[in-house]
């Protein structure tokens, strides 16, 4: 059997793959959003690359601040389109993201509905946005829901966006093309 020697520990390939599968099963059980209690065995820390969690409340530091807030707003817009609501972005609570050049972003945010009787009260939402290509705005928003809603047990729709240039108009004009797909 081939053995892996990482972090001064010895593992068979099977042990390594089993640990990786256990990690991703725990992540899948939360749909990627609540991974604070997902455990990587200490001896395998650094070997299993998974979701990187960030607490975004207050003055917390997290990568791609403006991009992440725009992705969260996009998900909220998707929710509003599908549900006929008018929620507006409040603040970002937490972010989990893959550590790749093309990443997936799992965001938990708060939003409020202006004009509602309790418009000061904010609801908690979960949004998932997946990038499809490096260095291009080609993304899919597959999850946009209230935190307590479960969408993985039933068919769902996803919203895909891509930025394209229209050479027949002008080389400086770009368009954002959106496509809503129902599954």
How do you describe this structure in short?
By secondary structure, the chain is α+β, with helices and mostly antiparallel strands.
Q: Can you tag this structure with a few keywords?
A:
183 residues; alpha+beta; 7-stranded antiparallel sheet; 2 helices; disordered N terminus; MS5; UPF0725 protein
Structure characterization notes:
The chain has 183 residues and is α+β, with helices and mostly antiparallel strands. The protein has 2 domains: 3-49, no CATH class; 55-182, no CATH class. The chain is built from 2 helices and 9 strands. It has helices spanning 13-29, 65-83; strands at residues 3-6, 9-12, 51-55, 88-98, 104-112, 123-131, 138-146, 157-165, 174-182. The strands form 2 sheets. It has a 7-stranded antiparallel sheet with strand order 3-4-5-6-7-8-9, covered by helices on one side. A two-stranded antiparallel ribbon has the order 1-2. The model is unreliable at 3-8, 154-159 and 168-176 (pLDDT under 50).
């Amino acid at each position: 059997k081939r053995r892996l020697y990482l972090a001064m520990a010895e593992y068979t390939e099977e042990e390594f793959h089993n640990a990786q599968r256990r990690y991703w099963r725990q992540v899948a059980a939360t749909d990627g959003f609540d991974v604070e209690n997902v455990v990587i065995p200490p001896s395998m820390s650094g070997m299993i690359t998974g979701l990187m969690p960030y607490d975004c409340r207050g003055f917390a530091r997290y990568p791609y601040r403006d991009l992440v807030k725009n992705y969260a707003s996009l998900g909220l817009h998707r929710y509003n389109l599908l549900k006929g609501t008018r929620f507006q972005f409040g603040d970002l609570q937490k972010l989990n993201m893959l550590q790749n050049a093309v990443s997936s972003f799992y965001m938990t945010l708060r939003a409020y509905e202006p004009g509602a009787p309790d418009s000061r009260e904010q609801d908690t939402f979960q949004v998932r946005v997946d990038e499809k290509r490096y260095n291009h705005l080609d993304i899919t928003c597959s999850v946009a829901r209230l935190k307590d809603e479960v969408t993985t047990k039933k068919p769902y729709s996803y919203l895909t966006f891509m930025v394209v240039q229209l050479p027949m108009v002008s080389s400086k004009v770009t368009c954002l093309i959106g496509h809503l797909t129902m599954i």
